Every structure is written in structure tokens, then in C-alpha cells.
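for the recovery benchmark. C-alpha cells below, seq after
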């Protein structure tokens, strides 16, 4: 797979080398000449990595990085405006099938959608908040990820001892048709749910739900 990573900060460097290690062809774009040090590290380990020094918001820089033909573009700079411009160029000018963009400021997350060429937005702040909520709440729905421009969500809830759902089967939960239980985490292990699977106190239930039915799912688990 051919991947272009724009932005060679801590996250960009880590992702680039990690992708190289598993055999992907990676091109890094950054304004900083120190980025060439990454190429030296990669070449010493026989990784398939190229470096382009330049502005990822410049279409000529993207052409130099052979953005045309890339499978994935990761826009990973420290500036949200740059990440949006890079994503839009990658999608509209070069037709990249998969564009992933980093969200630096959580208040900007609403802009990172398909109108700007973003297929998947990654917000570290949002992920941290979800993890914290997961640890401190029981019988509450926590959003983990969203897909399809926010129309589908991956959500999670942990059953408390007091939950009315403890002891019921997956079928008896009466979950809407547009929602599915995709996994149950129990005592550090994954239980692949079946209709007859009985849920227990302390179970972490992972569901994939349409946004339209999220309210019904909340009502079921947050009694």
C-alpha cells in the first residue's frame, strides 16, 4: 500500500516508521529539512520511505510526492487549516481513495467531513475524553468512533450490578434493528455475541448503531 504522510512531528514520524516496518511504501512531506533524518533511519533499516521537503498545501509538492496513485493520505500537521486544505487537495485533485486527517483543536472537529475531502477524522482530545468517560461511567453510553459522516457510531457501555439488563440474553435486550452488538468484553477477554449470549455485571458491551437509533439505545441501557 502506498501511503503519504503530511507532517513529520512526533505522531507523523511514528506512523511513518511503523507503516514502513510492516512493508508499506511511505512518502513523508514536511517543511523541515530535519525530516531527511527520518529517511536516514529508514534507509538503514531497508524501509521503503521517501522524503519530500515542502509545503503539503502546495499542489506541486503533492505532485512531487506522487500523490496521484496513493492509496492513503494522512494529513497530520499541527495546524487544522492546513490539514483541511491538504485533505481537500488529496481528494479532489488527486482522487485519493482514503484521506485521514488529524484534528488538533476539538472545536474544529465538525469541519472534518467529506465536504473537505476527509474520510476519517482523528481527534486525540475526543479519544481521551471517551476513554475517561468509559472508566468513570456505568450504564451510560459512550461514543467511541463515528463513521459515514457521523451517521453511524461505535458506542460502548459497561453494565453495573444494578442494571436491569444483567442476566438477559442479547435477544432480550430488544435492541433496534439498526443497531448491533459487535462484541462483549468480559474479564479482559472478548466474547463474540450470539442471540443466546447472556450479559453480566461488569460486561463492556460494544455496539454499532445508526445515529437515528442512538436515542433508543440510550433508553435501553440507561434505565
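predicted aa per position
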Amino acid at each position: 500500500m502506498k501511503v503519504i504522510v503530511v507532517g513529520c512531528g512526533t505522531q507523523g514520524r511514528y506512523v511513518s516508521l511503523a507503516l514502513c516496518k510492516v512493508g508499506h511504501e511511505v512518502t513523508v512531506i514536511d517543511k523541515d529539512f530535519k525530516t531527511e533524518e527520518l529517511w536516514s533511519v529508514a534507509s538503514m533499516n531497508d524501509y521503503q520511505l521517501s522524503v519530500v521537503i515542502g509545503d503539503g498545501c502546495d499542489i506541486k509538492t503533492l505532485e512531487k510526492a506522487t500523490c496521484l496513485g496513493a492509496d492513503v493520505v494522512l494529513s497530520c500537521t499541527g495546524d487544522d487549516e492546513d490539514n483541511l486544505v491538504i485533505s481537500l487537495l488529496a481528494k479532489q485533485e488527486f482522487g485519493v481513495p482514503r484521506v485521514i486527517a488529524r484534528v488538533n483543536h476539538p472545536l474544529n472537529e465538525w469541519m472534518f467531513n467529506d465536504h473537505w475531502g476527509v474520510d476519517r477524522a482523528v481527534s486525540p482530545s475526543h479519544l481521551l475524553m471517551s476513554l475517561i468517560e468509559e472508566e468513570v461511567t456505568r450504564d451510560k453510553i459512550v461514543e467511541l468512533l463515528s463513521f459515514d459522516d457521523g451517521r453511524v457510531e461505535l458506542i460502548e457501555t459497561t453494565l453495573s450490578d444494578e442494571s436491569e439488563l444483567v442476566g438477559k440474553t442479547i435477544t432480550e435486550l430488544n435492541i433496534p434493528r439498526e443497531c448491533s452488538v459487535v462484541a462483549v468484553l468480559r474479564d479482559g477477554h472478548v466474547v463474540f455475541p450470539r442471540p443466546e449470549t447472556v450479559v453480566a455485571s461488569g460486561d463492556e458491551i460494544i455496539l454499532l448503531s445508526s445515529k437515528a437509533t442512538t436515542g433508543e439505545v440510550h433508553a435501553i441501557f440507561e434505565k
